[in-house]
Amino acid sequence: MALKYNGSYDHVSKIGDKEIKFKEWTAKEERQYLKLLEKQDDNITDKMLYDILINPCIEDKNIVLSGVEQKKLLIDIRIKSISEYLEDEHKCEKCEETSKIKVKLEDIMTFKKSSYKSIEVEDIKFNFGEIRSNKEKEKLSLKNGLVEYIYQDFLIHIHSIEMDGKVQDKFTKKELSDFIDSLPSKIFDEVFDEYQKMVDELTIEYKWTCPECSHTETIDYTYIPNLLWA
Question: Residue 74 belongs to what domain range?
Fold first, then answer.
């Protein structure tokens, strides 16, 4: 008989109207993740993290999640797999003394669910919606910086464009990108600003007070890559 430990999907992550059943990470996922970080490779994509840290743990392998929803799920899995607390050390900006931090992740994590709709600017109507396939976000990466990541994420949420009395919903990613790039700045800025109000958002910020000098500052853990095992 093969020697194997079988985990069960005992936990639930609630993300908007989605309830995702999951099991805890195993030593295999931890080792694969730490090896990925060890490479210090800027080419790490959302898909790589999804394949290592999410897909092996969730019951529904076909569920479609946005990048932010993935991060929320990752933190929920981390809480059950490792600890509900984040333990860290922080150097005070004022007195430069280093202190230990122990804070409950649920107390410093804020998640806002998306609410997509149409945006009409001048004679162009942009229809936004949830991503329809995990393949749409497979190539998302911070390799080219946060600005480009946000822009590419913006593109995959455009379902159709109405202009000149026609609805355009059949286009390649390059065709869509070329069209967006050709827009006057004032139109793009208005659309993007309204889009930003609709998207889901996750922040992990801790308002910390130095025990030595009482200086207060905000520590942002939102984009820390090794947060999961910190």
Answer: 11-85
